[in-house]
Amino acid sequence: MTENEIGTIVVDGALKIHKALGPGLLEVVYEAILARQLEKSGLATQRQVMVPINFEGVSYDEGFRADIIVGGKVILELKSTETVHPVHKKQLLTYLKLTGLKLGYLLNFGEELMKNGITRIINGEIQS
Predict the structure, then answer these.
(1) If the chain, 128 residues long, is cut into consecutive pieces of 10 residues, what is the mean pLDDT of each piece?
(2) Residue 21 is inside which H or E element, if any?
(3) Chain centroid to CA 65: how far?
(4) Partner of 68 at 20 to 30 A CA spacing, among 3, 50, 103, 128?
(5) 3-122 has which CATH code?
């Protein structure tokens, strides 16, 4: 499955969850439910994946934890906040660069309308 095909399933799942539950829950609640929805769609998910950072030949496990990695190809960074700040988008772009993955989604479940809380971020070209 391509990154774009995974992305379509992710967006559909996020919209479905937000429509049913609305905004205001903790991020971890949306994370657990979205991961389960994606698994029900046949996608492999990993939650809170430790991604080490390599700097000057040394690997640091204190890197970051990706909220969800889908199919080994797409990173999901979830928020449940009133406002997404530019730093949140930069954070996801850095995650993509560190992992070498091409596509990520910043999903803010705190928005009144979920469609306003979806940001697609690309690291390089995506092959369809």
Answers:
(1) 96 97 96 98 96 89 89 97 91 90 96 95 64
(2) helix 3-21
(3) 11
(4) 128
(5) 3.40.1350
